[in-house]
Each structure stands twice: as C-alpha cells, then as structure tokens.
Amino acid sequence: MAPIPVAAAILVLLGAAVTLRATHGRLTVVGLGVALLGLPLAVGGIPDPLVLAFRTVAILLALLLLDHAVRRTTSLIGPIHLGGTTEVAIVLAAWLLGLILGSTMPDARGAAIALATAVALGTAGLTLQWFGHDTLRRGCGAMFALAAGATAVPAFGGAEGAALELALAGTLLAVAGATAWLAVVGGRVRHDLELADRPRDLRDAG
Amino acid sequence: MALLALLVVAAAGAAGTFLARGRAAMAAGVGIAALAVFAVTAAAMPPDATLSVGAAQLVVTPYARLWLTAAAVALLAVEVVSQVHGGQRDLPFAALGGLGAAAVALTVTDAAAAVLAVTAAGCLGLVATLGGHVTMPTLRVSADGLRGVAVAGAGAVLAVAWIGDDAIFLSSGAVAVGVLLMAAALALRLGAVPLHVPLARLVETARLVAVPLAAAWLPATFAIVGLGWAQLVPAPVAGDLAGPRLIVALVAVVTIAAASVVEILDDDLARILGYGLVADGGFVLLALAAADPAVWPAARTWLLCLALSRTVMTLAILGLDGAHGTRRVRELHGWLRRTPSLGIALAASVLVGIGLPGMLPFEARRTLAVLAVGEPLGALVLILGALPLLPLARLAWVGVQVPGPAVAAGGSERPVMPPADATKPSTARLAGARTIVRRAALAWQLDRVPIASAVTGLLALAALAVALGVGGLAEAAAGRPPGAGPTPGL
What we know:
heterodimer, A: mainly alpha, B: mainly alpha, 2 domains, 22 helices
C-alpha cells in the first residue's frame, strides 16, 4: 500500500473521530476541516494543483462559515445520541469493512484505501445525520456524506475529473452556507444550535 | 460564452441580493432584475453552446434551455407575488443561486458532477424556506429538508459511482443495486411514500413562496439528472431488472394512491398542494419502473409541466390567502366572484398538471403509467392521479356561492381608483416621469390583490402555452439527457 494514501486516510479518520466526539462547536469544525482537507490525498494519485487549490479554498471558506455560525450562537453542543465513542468505533469498523471489500474487488481500477475511506466517511455522515440533534452536526454529516459519495467515484474505478472536484467543492460550500444560515436563524429563536424541543434557555427554564 | 454569461448573471445576481439583503426593497429590485436578465440570457443561448471544464463539458441542450427559461420566468413571477404579499428577503438569493447550480447540473456531461451540482442547488433553495417569524417547527422542517437533500445527493452520487460509464460491476444484481439506490434517492428527494413526511411538512410549515423553488423546481431538476443517469445506465451482462422495477412501480403506485386520497380528505389548500407534490413524485418514479426507452422523453415532459403547474397553484393559493386571509376551503365561500383571475389560474394549473387527452402532460402521464405497470393497471393509476380534481372541484363549487364572512371582508381583483389629488399631476413641479412613478407606487400600494392576480394569471397562461407545445417541449424532451458524456466532435 502506498504510504501517502494510508497516512491521509488515518488523518481523515482522526478528523471524523474529532467531529463525532467533540462537544465544543469549534473543535467539531476543526475535525471536519482535517477530514475534508486530507481526503484528496487518501484517494491516491497527485491531484491537479489548480483544482486542489480551488477545493482547498472552498473548504476553508466553508469552515469559516460554520465557525462564524458557532461564534454567533454558542460553542457548546450536546453529545451525539449514540455516544461519541460508540460512533467512532462504528466508523472504524466501517473503514475496515471497506478495506476488506476494496481488497477483494475483481478489477485493478478499484482503490481499496479510497473505498475504505469513503465507506468510513459515509458512515460518519449518516450517523451524524440521524443521531445528531443540532444544526452543526447535521451540516457536518451532510458534508461527510457528500464527500464520501464523491470519493466513491474513483474508488470504484471511475475518472476523478476536474468537473467532479469543482462540483464537490461548490456543493460543500453550499451545504456549509445553508447550515450556517440555519444555525444563525435558529440562534435567534433559542440562542443555541439545538433542534430538539427543550426550554429556550436557562432563564426560560427557571 | 453564452453559458458562461448565464452563470455570471446567476452568480452576480446571487451576490448582489445577498449583499443587499439588509435593505429589503433593494434586494428585491436586484433579485427581480437579475431573474429577468437570467430568463432572457437563458432564452438567448444557442443550442449546443459549450464550456469546457477539464475533460468534461457543459453543453446546452434545447431542453436545458427551455427548462432554465421557464424556471427563471416562474421564479420571477413568484418573487413579484411575494413582494405583493410582504416579501421574503432570502428568496431572490436562493432562486438565483439555485438556478445557477441547476444550470450546471443540467448541462454538465459528468453524471456525478451533475448530481453534486443539483444537490448544491437544493441546499441553496432551502435558504428560502425560512423568513419572517421563525419558530422551532419551521427551523426543524428546514433542517430536515437539508438532511433530505444531502442524503439523497450522497445516495445518487454513490449510485453513479457504482454503475458509471465504465463500471466494474455489471451483473444483474449489481445494476439492480444501483437502480434501487437511485430510486431511493429520488423517492427521498421527491417525497415518495414512505419518505413523504419531510416534504409534506415543509410545504405545510415553511413560507409558501419558497415552495415552488424548494419543493418543485429543484427536486424536479434532481429527478432530471437522476433519470438521465438511469437512461444511460448500461444493461446488466446477464439477467434483467424485473425485480427492482417491480419494487419501484409498487412504491410509485402506493405513493400516487395514498397522496391522492389525502388530498381528497384535506381542507387546507397548502396541504393539498403538499400532497399533490408527493403524488407527482410517484409519477416520476414510474419512469424508473419502466423498461421502454419511450419513458424518458415522457418523464422530462412531465417534470417541466409538474414544476410549472405547482408554481401556478402556489401563487393562486398565495393570492387567495392574501386576498381573503384564509387558505381553508370551507372558509372561502364566494372567492371566485371576488377573485376570478385566480380561478382561471387554478384551472390552468390543473390543465398543465393533469391535462386533457392530447395535451402533453396528459400523454406524458399516460405513457409513464402504461409503460411502468401495463394495461389496465396503467389506466387505474391515471385515474388515481386525477383524484385531486375532486377537492379542486369542491373549491370551485364553494367559490361560486354567496361570499362568506372571510371573503366578504377580504380584497377583490377590482382595481382601486387612486384619490383625485393623487392622480392630478402638478406640472409646475413634477415632470411626467415622476408622475408616472408616483402613480405606479400608489397603484402598488392600493392594488396589491389585482397585481398578484394578474401576475399569477399571466404565468398560468404561459404555463398553459408550454403544455400545449409552444416552445417545443416535446422535441426538446426527446433530446440527450444531462450527464451524457462529451458530445461527439467536441
């Protein structure tokens, strides 16, 4: 196995684990950033510098939008329903499963590390979507799921063209924008990022 | 260059409306101007205009041009009517951003990039769903909408990755998995049963002016991209896809039947609209259930009619709500006497959405139903799909009766004559142009109901013209699908 994709895949997993476990909004955003910025290298091959630069700038802008939303509302978010450790274990198991599936693919065009990373990231995205109960985690889950889908294209032997990279960059930015907008508008209603029913804040609760 | 100009108009318009969103009137003005320019630019694009992005291209097809023009005109009408009813600050930004991303999705030759672009459009469209007084339920339906858009997009990209141009796996089982994955993504995005709750709640809870963009045009664009992939998906090397097609057909028929029954039982026009959209999604799924290639042009024809019909219906409901302060059928006695233009618009929306034998939407729906489930079940599906005519007939019956309290106290479409001193130009101080502007501003203040009805009526007539074949919808729908790879010779 080539060392760069393996190292990048570990970085992506670390980022996903931080996003799943963190209960501080800005740390969640940092984890998301580490995972998304490391992802192109986990796919294998050296990306086109111009496309990589565009994608990096788009991801940094997306992170900036999410960080802005967190700072406008609250830094503290509740733990995910299943528990961060359980989620991380599920994502690691998904990565291993993806690696096994990728290694047994009947065609040399398939990429095992890329497939494993896509499966792990997709699992992280779906669990964040279903078990996350705040706007930030929902947004991070959406970005993970879409990035996983795009990573699956080269993982299954498809061509990873500039159009796909640019479209992914634009989509991640659009998801981050919509998430930040939801967070800021929601923050006006109840001063935090929660979507579940509970008192508006401690003053209301008292 | 024409396509680049279109994308620049969308980007500049979205940026302009975003920067001006602190000033509602300016944002609305920029948005209306940008949508008008977008519509003109889209209509002026030559067929087969291209733009290269690496190995992929953006290629303008007649269908993409017609779709983008129709969408821009429809959303322009929505924005004007929205301003009549108090405005929705984020709508122009969401509409222009969504249209720009949809333009990329409908023209790019890379199927995965097309799915991602239409997912970005869906996310931008959701920005329009909140506005004014925000509550937790409205926030939650928007968040659920974002989840639906993202998960459907991820599922569709995965299907494209799994069975792409040069797929590794081409057994019947592998292709079946890809088709079912795309069907699930379409079902989630279009709100098919049992995944209909987010869409129904979005239409019921969110601002009604956002419905055409977030629940009709952008989901329909997603369907065009998804069905384009399905049209090009390679046949399995052995076996067939009878099993997955049967499952998809079953989901589609149950969706049409259940949503139509809910429409009959309900009294709230917004809920009737919401479940109408759910039933429309069932007809789209029928395209995936059919094996005959004749289904693809029919599906593309139906998708444009669906979006136009639901836009007109939304504007008519907004008009009724704005004029009479209610959208419940039982409180709308006599509405047709006070707002007849809205009645004409609703009738046009029915003709565009269901149609009469010989009309494009009717024939498209018949083709979808018959090719998916055969005869005589196809005829039954067609009848089930026409059940929403019953609540609309009830609405018409209520409308011709003596006006009830809500309608009697509400507005009518008769223009209000401005006060004499306001119409009399003071030539000594005011130039003619200023007088015209002043009269227009006064008319805007006094005649909101007639203006909204007029805009709705004009859009209804335009939609009817498209459904009758003006603009070449039938020929355009028979062309190449989005994501079809680079055009030969380019």
